[in-house]
Amino acid sequence: MAAKPVDHEIVYEEFEPFCKWQRKEDRDVLEIHLQGFKKEQLKVQISNHGVLKISGERPIDGSKHMKFYKEVAAPNTKYDTHAIHAKFVNNNLIITMPKLKPSSPDPTEPSKPISPPAAVAAPAKAPPHLGGNVPAPAAQCQMQSCRKRPFMGSKLGKLAASLAVTAVAAVVLAAYVHFMYKSTVGHDSI
Prior knowledge:
With 190 residues, the chain is an alpha+beta fold.
């Protein structure tokens, strides 16, 4: 009789990769340093709501995997979401987000004050493609950490959610006890 192979559960180690922004007049470029990753282990998508979702996962050894997840706002009021593209070169994921060109005003039309839109329309679903030309990095760039999905999947987020549920349960229980006490006190006074 042959022995059954033992299935090992995969253990994930989350990390926050180093990010570098290059802000230019016509585009913003996000460079994410991902040592040890391969192009096939990365995923870049844009949602209908203008959120760039970047993730990756790679094996470390045996049942251990390293992974990350980032979200970056890419509103269609600022960026040409159909032209966003990503390229993986020398352990760096380079995401180029071309800015929308301002439309030139009609000289025959009187000028009107510009008010912000009430709601941002969702861009058409067009996932960015890997590849494309990316200019050489500029000498000066603004470095900042990428915005991470708040609390999702982290131990702190799970703790916060657990505390919130416990607090709501305590308030409901206190209200119920108060209601029951008031209803029994009202019957005893007759």
